[in-house]
């Protein structure tokens, strides 16, 4: 019987995968702290969760670009929750670039949310879990991190950073009882991919959350759904001179 989580913190919980994870964890009796910028969205989700009879989540308005606020907010949240055994960093942006567009503003925003925010939150959790000798730390990466994609150079690079960073955390904290899980979803039907075409093996956010929570009981890298593991193993083998001709 797998042990269920009691106190979870989700950063990027106001929509999509983060929202679905919060709903699923709460339905299992877990007290969830939900973090995002849109407090009204968080309030609506929390009301619905409470109405279903699950523990009402705790809500925190926060912009992950404000990394200097993270240490104090992390301490407050763990105190309010009364503990922490699971953290999930799901905040992420993927600005659309036009064919000839190079936007430093979009690129730096992507690095701020997908990289700097992730490090600010996950370093705090890694330190706490290492001291406690237990805890599960989950980063929502992407299959996009496995190759440099012509449509999303900085988004792909931000996820490759997350993959390597999480591997390092796993190797650093595993010996102290901490579980570190890298989640690499393919397309998931959320606002992030709204308007995009050609989304193979598209799954719902709820299905993604189900697979993520199942996968998070084991240390390592989880492709969501599993079909992406063999697909990306092949994609990684495509020589660069061929990959650069593909429109992916
Ligand atoms: N959907 C996909 O196909 C797919 C595939 C692979 C990986 N992913 C990854 O999955 C994760 C979740 O994405 P999603 O699909 O669920 O997208 P989403 O519905 O757009 O959710 C993104 C979440 O990130 C939060 N966020 C964005 N910027 C933030 C900021 N500056 N400060 C705090 N929170 C911020 C948003 O909250 P606020 O706007 O309220 O702040 C929202 O809760 C992302 O890391 C994404 O890269 C998604």
Automatic annotation (TrEMBL):
One of its GO terms (cellular component) is membrane. GO terms for molecular function: oxidoreductase activity. Keywords: Oxidoreductase. The keyword Cell cycle does not apply. InterPro entries: NAD(P)-bd_dom_sf, Sc_DH/Rdtase_CS, SDR_fam. Belongs to the short-chain dehydrogenases/reductases (SDR) family. This is Short-chain dehydrogenases of various substrate specificities. The lineage of its organism: Bacteria, Bacillati, Armatimonadota, Chthonomonadia, Chthonomonadales.
